[in-house]
Write a structure and sequence with these properties.
globular, 93 residues, 81% helix
């Protein structure tokens, strides 16, 4: 593992920990450090998979840019809707 990979993993862990802390405050749920670590590993692994998909889609389509549909449509319809909605709200700003 190189330094960039360690930095990325640390960033993902920090973001997951923050989200868990926020949820704890809102719902009263308790998340153990083991759970936060495991969840951050799952999130990082999913991000790696998505990054590989991005590269493959771009190479296959012989283009430098891909769309949200390219990445998400084949794996998770609910995620596609969430990302599409977020992208639309960003465009509206």
């Amino acid at each position: 593992m190189n330094a960039d990979s360690n930095d990325a993993r640390a960033s993902v862990w920090f973001a997951v920990a923050q989200l868990c802390n926020e949820d704890e405050k809102k719902t009263g749920a308790k998340y153990s450090p083991t759970f936060v670590d495991a969840l951050s590993q799952v999130v990082y692994a999913q991000a790696e998979t998505m990054a590989l998909d991005l590269e493959c889609f771009a190479k296959h389509a012989k283009r430098a840019k891909i769309s949200v549909d390219d990445l998400c449509a084949r794996r998770n319809d609910d995620l596609l809707k969430l990302i599409s909605d977020a992208a639309e709200s960003l465009k509206a700003k």
